[in-house]
Amino acid sequence: MSQKELADKLGVSVRTIANYESGGVIPESKYKILASLSDPIAKKIHTVITGDSSIKGNNNISNTGVIGSDDAESFDENKAFEFLRSQLLQTKEKIDELAEQRKDANAMIKYFLEENKELKEKNKELIAEVAMLKKLLNM
Questions:
Q1: Which side of the chain, N or C, has fewer Cβ within a 10 Å radius?
Q2: What are phi and psi of 74, to 5 degrees?
């Protein structure tokens, strides 16, 4: 496929394609680029993730919304939604777990700071006792 054909397919300029190939520019959304290549699953994922269903490109696949679409594509929207939902729930559980760990770590820090304070006080007392003993020995 030529740069011109790819540019037409993606709805971008030939210069943009050249910049992608050289690494000079990174596509704004890999999902959008995949969807522009007539991949109905990538198109749906892009729409679910970004809410943007205005994908450019010269393809014959409809750009209907993910939820409630009744197009003939072989894409199970309910499975995609459930997958994304499960990923969201797993992420929330991990965040909750990390928040609990942070709470425990903060409690430990507080404990060690208090212990450090007590040890500093004891150290001052010992230094004062040593100084007093030195005085007594020098008398």
A1: C
A2: -90, 65
What is the C-alpha separation between 63 and 39, in angstroms, rounded?
12
Question: 15-24, 70-79, 90-99, 129-138: which range is least confident on average?
Answer: 70-79
Nearest to 71 by CA among 82, 62, 80, 79: 62
Q: Could you tell me which residues come within 8 angstroms of residue 27 by beta carbon, excluding any fewer than 6 positions away?
A: 20, 33
CB 55 within 8 A of CB 32: yes
Structure tokens at 27: 């596509």
Q: Between 14 and 23, where is the model more confident?
A: 14
pTM: 0.38
Locus of tokens 């903060």: 106
Q: Distance (Å, rounded) from C-alpha 63 to C-alpha 40?
A: 9
Q: Are the CB atoms for 37 and 12 separated by under 8 Å?
A: no
Percent of the chain with pLDDT strictly greater than 70:
61
CB 61 within 8 A of CB 43: yes
